[in-house]
Amino acid sequence: MKTEIVRARVSSELKHESEVILSELGMSMSDAIRIFLSQIKLRNEFPIELKMPNRETLKAMKEPVTKDEYSSASDLFSDVLGCSDVKN
Predict the structure, then answer these.
(1) What is the tally of structural domains in the chain?
(2) What is the DSSP string of 16-76?
(3) How do residues 17-40 score in pLDDT, each as one tens digit?
(4) Distance (Å) of CA 1 to CA 4, 22, 33, 85
(5) 13 touches 23 (CB < 8 A)
(6) Which keywords has UniProt assigned to this entry (predicted)?
(7) What is the rounded CA–CA span in Å between residue 6 and residue 42?
(8) Is residue 25 part of a domain?
């Protein structure tokens, strides 16, 4: 029987954007919270892996996005791997 209430303060933007996504999945915010808490109970741990990015990842995240275009996957791999003869 559902008798307890869980309350949390979040930004209106986070709430709205989450509700839109959950609605597309056919579930309510309450459904999502119930599933989240059920997974904590089932697994006996936090159900989402939380990681801090390392220095290299943080550096890459701060670099500007390039608009390079390639005519084929081979051209892309050649550029990324720094070689001219990449085979599929």
Answers:
(1) 1
(2) HHHHHHHHHTT--HHHHHHHHHHHHHHHTS-SS------HHHHHHHHSPPP----SSHHHH
(3) 999 999 999 999 999 999 999 999
(4) 9, 23, 16, 65
(5) no
(6) Toxin-antitoxin system
(7) 19
(8) yes
pLDDT for 34-85, tens place per residue? 999 999 999 999 999 988 899 999 998 898 888 888 899 988 888 889 876 6
pLDDT at 9: 96
CA distance linking residue 70 with residue 66, whole number of Å: 12
On whether residue 62 sits in a domain, the answer given is no
How far is residue 17's CA from residue 20's CA, in Å, rounded to a whole number?
5
